[in-house]
Amino acid sequence: MQLDDLDFADDLALLSQTQQQMQEKTTSVAAASAAIGINIHKKKSKILRYNTSCNNPVTIDGEDLEDVKTFTYLGSIIDEHGESDADVKARIGKARAAYLQLKNVWNSKQLLTNTKVGISNTNVKTVLLYDAETWRTTKATIQKIQVLINSCLRKILRIRWPDTISNNQLWERTNQFQAEEEIMKKHWKWIGHTLRKALNCVTSKP
């Protein structure tokens, strides 16, 4: 079984093994859409080539579609090499923004530390680790993720220079696991979820 497309709401991602297949699918979708009065927005249609040297253009009505090096699908950034660096960078930025939006929570003297940590896990860490089960992580990317988590936790505990505590003490006081461990758990959970699917399911195929 071969997965030919990914559909969500009004977004359609076509998948092909060759440039010729992609052109045929694109032409077919454009024709089917036009037949029911739907026009494809050519400026918003992009081509991402994964691990290929072929650069022949894909067109709609004779107009070349733009080639891109990254593609955002359901909130995750996919690049032409299948790496996760761009997605991790974007996640860190969104998580930092989510943390800053809750400044009043962190500064509150009425909320217990455990409550603040729980809010951080729910509203910040979930944003940070969204789709982490699919990441191809390196020590460098994990370190960047951990730095942000540690920074948030230290601010919640009101630990500021020159006061310092070790990372291990920080995690113990806030009852948190290391980022690497949490990401690994997500990987294994996703693998288990995939293995439990029926053998003819697309996601069970290599």
TrEMBL record:
It comes from the Eukaryota. PROSITE patterns: RT_POL. InterPro entries: DUF6451, RT_dom. It holds the Pfam family DUF6451. This is Uncharacterized protein. It comes from Schistosoma mattheei.
